[in-house]
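debug: dumping io for the single-chain case to check the tokenizer round-trip. Nothing else runs in this session.
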Amino acid sequence: MTVSGHLDAARALVPVLAARAGATETARSVPAETVAAFHRTGILRLLQPARFGGAQASFDQFSEIVETLAEGCSSSAWVYAVLGEHQWIVACLPERGQDDVWGDDPFAVASSSLAPRNVGLPADGGWRVSGTFPFSSGCDHAKWAILGVRAEDAAGNRRTRYMLVPMGEIEVLDDWHVLGLRGTGSKSLVLKDVFVPTHRTVLLKDLLDGTTPGALVHPDYALLRAPRGFLVPFSLPPVMFSLGRRALRTVPEMLRSRLSRGTRDLAESEVVQMQLSEAGAAIDLACLILRTRRAESMAMLASGRPVTVEDGMRNRRDVAYAAAMIRDGVGRLAELAGSRVARDDEPLQAILRDVETIATHAVVLRQMNYVPYGRAMLGLPAAVGEA
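debug: decoded output
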């Protein structure tokens, strides 16, 4: 299927996802039918290397599909973004690790829990891992999980690795009772002394530098040479930006027919007009920032120019800044909606809850994404863990 074909397939799914959104939220997990549709249309294999039957597409195409799906259901789009983007991480593994994942099942996908909360103890040929790994979006539909682990060597030194573990060796803890993104099924994963061989791991530093073993396995796929931090801002955040646009469509329609205390058309209020316009400016300009930076980043990769650490820091900074604009714009719209937003059956409430939940994610947290660039502007070295 062509790139335009994948996007057309995603657009065709929007009304289907919208019709299932309520049931998705109630079930606290994306329906199996939705994930089956992602597989059937081929959009889950967009970033998978051609060697394993994937589309080997560019990251902007994947990001645009995330935006599109979020027009129908934010939880479904979030799970798609997670499962689809993780094809990139799997492709960064050593060749043997990729064969483990895709050799017998080229349609296999992986959920994750990437923050390195637990330690891997050295064992012959790999590590043994125990602990709880939370926030694994889409784990109900994954065959594998990618886990961030502080891998210890014989001398006691620890380096963060992403480790691939079969879901059959993991206990899923159903603890996903949350404010927003309720349908993502982002449950916790529990490991009890699970062995992970070295070939199913990749150093986080290599992902951040674009120097993973997978880049040698697939030399014709430029994405695998891209520093992870350079493109990650264009994976999950587009869900938030689509939510902003949905809110911007919803509230004006709501206000056109409303009266203030039954006496005055709200649409005639200059205060309402001013606040609506400000909210629209925040959301529209935020989307412009996201799309401009995304297009520039893909052009940079296509040109072959080396991507610097500062390039990645700038993308993270600007997308986090734009996400704050989305949050502000949606908040202004919620104020205009008034007490209606308190109703569980009000669509704007679900949008507001999802936006507030996404705003807690590390990829859009302001301090986490502003500080590295500020240090670079001052000529200070990167703090530990920054890239």
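debug: round-trip ok. Residues 50 and 203 are 23 Å apart (CA to CA).
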